[in-house]
Design goal:
GO terms for molecular function: copper ion binding; dopamine beta-monooxygenase activity. By secondary structure, the protein is mainly β. It has no helices and seven strands. The mean pLDDT is 86.
């Protein structure tokens, strides 16, 4: 894990790890490099780099698999307790998302007539064939009416 920020116009940054539910521990091997840091009223941005495999048991290799990222934000620059935290599953090696243009995509309609039970919650599983394609495609959206 990395912890960093800007305090009194000075940057702080280090490579850490954690063992269970306890305060982070500074890694003996500092494998991350801070390239830049900036801060405004609402955001602190850190640009960092690291080799894919550090051969450090306290680091996780970066590869083409999905990696769960956890993050935390504190009210101050003291690393005591976070105010907000979360997680996301990402592929770190994926490039930035591009704008999606719906006019560049194929669309098709599937009409299904079925009578659903009159319950508040209904779980309904069904499968439908798409038109045949010569290359792999991904569904980027659907609408149920």
């Amino acid at each position: 894990m990395i912890i960093g920020g800007i305090q009194d116009e000075n940057t702080y940054f280090a490579d850490y790890h954690a063992i269970g539910n306890q305060a982070p521990i500074v890694d003996i091997s500092q494998d991350w490099t801070l390239l830049s840091a900036s801060e405004n009223v609402t955001h602190t941005t850190l640009k960092v780099t690291r080799v894919f495999n550090t051969c450090d048991n306290e680091d996780i290799s970066i590869n083409n698999d999905t990696t769960k990222i956890i993050w935390a934000i504190g009210d101050t620059d003291k690393i005591l307790q976070h105010r907000k935290r979360g997680a996301a599953s990402v592929n770190i090696l994926d490039g930035p998302a591009t704008e999606w243009n719906a006019t560049d995509s194929d669309s098709w309609h599937i009409n299904v007539k079925t009578k659903l039970p009159s319950k508040d919650t209904v779980y309904w599983c069904t499968a439908h064939k798409s038109p045949p394609f010569d290359v792999k495609r991904h569904v980027v959206g659907f609408r149920v009416v």
